[in-house]
Amino acid sequence: MSYELRVAGLTCSHALRLNTNQNIPLFIMKKKRVVLCGEKWVAEQCLEFLYNREDTEVCAIVAAPEDWQADLISFGARKDLKVFIGNINNFFDDLASLQPDFIFSVQYRPLLKSAILNLPKSGCINFHFGLLPRYGGYYPIAWSILNGEKQAGSTLHYMVEKFDDGDIIAQTSVPIKEETTARELFDSMSVAAVKLFTDTYSSLLKGTVKAFSQDMSRKLYYDNSSIDFNRDRVIDWTRTGDEIQRRICASSFEPFQLPLTSVHLQDGKQSQATIANSRLHNNHSSKGSGKAGHITEVTDSGRLMVTAGNGDLIEIGSLNNQKPLEYIESLGHTTDNISFM
Asked: Which of 17, 199, 310, 327 has the most crowded CB, counting CB atoms within 10 A?
């Protein structure tokens, strides 16, 4: 028989278990104190996992002021946890007083400065949605699709003063198919990332993780200006079919963003429409004979077949969140007198 005894002078992070028959301590357990900064579903899932562990104490949350996918602020309020909102670098004194063992950054945007990085006893650990040393920096999901990668993934790594340069703890990957959109890839990577975190956490606590340095000769880094979605999500139909399909998928993050195409009307006017549910046809038997942007066929299901610059065909299933024919009819035109530019 055993019971838990609170010993004077020890914090709530300590527990002493005694054998009541022999009155001899069996073990002393000290909970690891963690801070989680982040946003989105993946951060919320990691937070809930940490909170429910008996060997871990979540001593603070650093949340984004706005979060479209999760609510870490409300989670902290429900669990009576300390919650800081905004840039973690502004809360150094508060966090220092908590003496954390780990700081976890999960989909967190601000760069942690050296004072914060040096704060936790066991380090600051980040979740990056790219397979480092490739796809460091910004837009790793979009760039993985644009570059025609067959897989993408997440990296759990120690943080240093430069973005995404620290030693790698663990990685996981998911497949990218020809029709995989950025939103679909983000969602599948989020699920895989949570599993990677939960599978790796015990090794972090035990100190048995074998981190390894990145091979910087393979480094690929994109800065914040590498993509301008307002400009780059507009489809250029003179490109090859592969390039157009990748651009459509990389720019598709519903419900917030979809790629755009310029619609050229026979009377000389132009319009713009969003594109969704596209598919590439690049075999020789399906090569289009028209000019780039020309509608060569309407399928039995009402989808459009549009010619790319190299003759490949792009099948389009939605324009402006409507069936393509319905959208074209709403303009007062038919497929014979419009084209895409």
From this structure: 327
pLDDT tens for 59-86 read 999 999 999 999 999 999 999 999 999 9
User: Does one domain contain both 239 and 189?
Assistant: no
84 domain residue, yes or no:
yes
pLDDT single digits (tens) 147-193 = 999 999 999 999 999 999 999 999 999 999 999 999 999 999 999 99
Burial class (CB in 10 A: 0-12, 13-18, 19+), 151: exposed
Count of beta carbons in the 10 Å neighbourhood of residue 319: 24
| End residue of a domain, out of 165, 193, 222 | 222
Residue 22 covered by a domain: no
Task: Out of 15-19, 213-217, 310-314, pick the least confident.
Answer: 15-19
Tell me the per-residue pLDDT of 294-308, one tens digit each, with 9 for 90 and over.
999 999 999 999 999
Q: Are 89 and 234 contained in the same domain? A: no
Walk across the sheet containing 304-307 and list its strands: 295-298, 304-307, 313-319, 270-281, 260-265, 338-340
Look up residue 102 and give its amino acid.
F
Q: What sign results for the dihedral spanned by CA atoms 16, 17, 18, 24?
A: negative
Q: Note the pTM of the prediction, 2 decimals.
A: 0.90
Contact of 13 with 53, CB cutoff 8 Å: no
Tokens of 200: 């790796």
- Do residues 141 and 264 share a domain? no
